[in-house]
């Protein structure tokens, strides 16, 4: 009996202890909480922890320090921090700085190398054609770099200087080789010196959508033990790790002789794996006669002008591939359409330039890898432009988005430059931009900060890179009829990968296209007035430090999510410009060390 009673007693004690433990105010004493419960110096009651903090203890230690500044992370007024936590509704939660946006980490660019010896090709040019010929080569190399950069790679042009740094160079130099074979060996030596990556002929172009599966896997890189080559490309494209390149060179160099013109023929085929690569277009000189006779004929007549025609042909094919990639056309986002005609005008101009047929020596031709394309010159319908007030998540549509600062949007909505705090609070809804463009995509009920997170994906996710372009209204011209600044177009070309037609010969066909004329959504206050308001708003957004209550700050505070979205786009664009400039600088120092 006794043992039984003591068990019951023990259970009771344990039960009471558990109760005490569960209901005690703080199971584990938290030094910070004890701190907070002490009266403050002047005896006032301390702030109670907010409901949010109470229910959702943060998973990581709260950041007390702003994250350290990263290299190349400012441009003008924009500041950013590249981090995996970019999908936070508010950047300031991470950076502790309202003006510093959190962007996704920069995508790593896999290097793609090409080899160019300025003294090699001109041998084929005649007399005074030589200078022109080198110019044509420069144009071709530029087109090659632009196309690969737009597809997410880091293109690098290698020259004999790079080949000379390879330890095999001394040996190779002593062997008599035909000039073709010498060029071939030097290009491998230069690649071997650089190491892991892709080696491509500069007549080899990526000719597919950004989200093409093959390009995705090329960007990612291989883990293969073999050197990847492309079927039927005869040495024009290889991808490999450094160890394999070295192995190939070690095998080939001792066997070099005059008879071979492709280095790979000297190496055991077991070192290679051949793949089909329908995403790549190769404009091999020998095949031009069959597929592009007009260009071939021009090259025969005068190599330099002929090669310029080839550059134009390739550019036209790249542009045409873009047009074919988006069968639903271009969407120029136009939220609050009664007020934003002037606001989207620059984006519409860009769209109209993009749907033009590129100049081409053979306007009806298709790229070598896409014989069934719809050539712009041959089809009756140009690419369609629409101006939806809502974002559509489809890969068939290329989206051009223009985001205004909340102050700009409010002054357009209210049709006045004299805005008061009272008006903002009484007469305007919060975050009209995000609510507007995501209404269909996310429904009417979601909160702005959740919309903001989806918006960031619309701008900067992997899916968005090749199918959208975002800019802030304030970075664009604000005069009616003004064409887009050429520096801006230059910049966009590195995203599109081809030259954007300039000088605006707008096709009359498209001018009357119902979808593309602005009058479809007539402006309420008149476009002229909209332009004036945008110009004035821009001045106010730029100006700093007035004594009276700053209405700009009020619009920002009232539209927290729209402001966040605006800063995000601004920083994202600024970063892409900085990224490209840094790459070009690095390229230039490369070139400088060669001579
Ligand atoms: C668009 O749709 C894809 C696929 O359904 C999805 O993964 C992506 O998150 C969507 N993007 C946005 C911005 O909603």
From TrEMBL:
Basic and acidic residues biased stretches:
62-74, 504-518
Q: Which UniProt keywords apply?
A: Signal
Indicate yes or no for the key word Signal: yes
Q: Which residues form the signal peptide?
A: 1-27
Q: Where is this region: Disordered?
A: 56-77, 503-527
Name of the molecule in the record = Uncharacterized protein
């Amino acid at each position: 009996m006794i043992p039984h009673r003591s068990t019951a007693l023990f259970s009771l004690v344990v039960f009471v202890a558990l109760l005490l433990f569960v209901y005690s105010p703080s199971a584990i004493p938290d030094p910070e909480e004890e701190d907070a419960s002490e009266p403050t110096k002047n005896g006032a009651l301390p702030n109670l922890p907010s409901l949010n903090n109470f229910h959702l203890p943060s998973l990581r230690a709260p950041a007390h320090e702003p994250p350290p500044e990263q290299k190349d992370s400012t441009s003008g007024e924009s500041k950013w921090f590249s981090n995996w936590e970019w999908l936070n509704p508010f950047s300031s939660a991470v950076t502790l700085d309202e003006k510093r946006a959190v962007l996704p980490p920069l995508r790593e660019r896999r290097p793609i190398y090409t080899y160019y010896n300025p003294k090699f090709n001109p041998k084929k040019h005649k007399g005074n054609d030589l200078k022109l010929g080198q110019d044509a080569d420069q144009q071709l190399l530029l087109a090659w770099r632009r196309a690969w950069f737009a597809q997410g790679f880091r293109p690098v042009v290698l020259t004999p200087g790079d080949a000379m740094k390879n330890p095999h160079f001394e040996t190779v130099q002593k062997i008599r080789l035909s000039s073709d074979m010498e060029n071939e060996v030097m290009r491998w030596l230069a690649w071997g010196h650089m190491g892991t990556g892709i080696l491509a002929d500069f007549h080899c172009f990526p000719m597919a959508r950004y989200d093409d599966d093959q390009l995705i896997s090329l960007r990612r890189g291989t883990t293969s033990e073999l050197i990847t080559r492309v079927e039927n490309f005869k040495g024009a494209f290889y991808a490999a790790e450094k160890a394999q390149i070295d192995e190939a060179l070690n095998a080939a160099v001792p066997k070099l002789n005059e008879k071979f013109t492709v280095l790979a023929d000297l190496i055991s085929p077991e070192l290679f794996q051949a793949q089909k690569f329908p995403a790549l277009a190769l404009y091999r000189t020998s095949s031009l006669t069959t597929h592009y006779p007009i260009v071939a004929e021009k090259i025969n007549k005068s190599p330099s002008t002929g090669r310029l025609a080839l550059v134009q042909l390739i550019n036209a094919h790249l542009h045409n591939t873009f047009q074919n990639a988006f069968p639903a056309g271009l969407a120029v986002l136009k939220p609050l359409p009664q007020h934003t005609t002037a606001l989207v005008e620059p984006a519409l101009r860009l769209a109209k330039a993009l749907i033009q047929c590129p100049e081409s020596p053979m306007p009806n031709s298709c790229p070598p890898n896409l014989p069934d394309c719809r050539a712009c010159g041959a089809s009756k319908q140009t690419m369609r432009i629409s101006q939806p007030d809502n974002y559509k998540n489809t890969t068939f549509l290329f989206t051009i988005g223009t985001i205004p600062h909340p102050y700009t949007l409010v002054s357009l909505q209210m049709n006045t430059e004299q805005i008061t705090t009272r008006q903002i609070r009484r007469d305007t809804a919060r975050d009209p931009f995000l609510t507007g463009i995501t209404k269909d995509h996310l429904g009417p009920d979601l909160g702005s900060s959740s919309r903001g997170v989806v918006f960031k994906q619309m701008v900067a996710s992997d899916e968005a890179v090749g199918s959208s372009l975002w800019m802030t209204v304030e970075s664009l011209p604000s005069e009616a009829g003004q064409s887009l600044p050429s520096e801006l177009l230059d910049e966009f070309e590195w995203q599109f990968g081809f030259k954007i037609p300039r000088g605006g010969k707008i096709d009359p066909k498209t001018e009357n296209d119902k979808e593309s004329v602005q009058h479809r959504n007539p402006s309420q206050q008149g476009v002229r007035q909209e332009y004036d308001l945008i110009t004035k708003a821009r001045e106010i957004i730029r100006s700093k430090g007035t004594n009276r209550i700053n209405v700009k700050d009020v619009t920002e505070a009232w539209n927290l999510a729209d402001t966040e979205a605006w800063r995000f786009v601004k920083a994202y664009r600024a970063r892409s410009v900085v990224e490209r400039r840094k790459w070009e600088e690095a390229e230039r120092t490369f070139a400088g060390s060669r001579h």
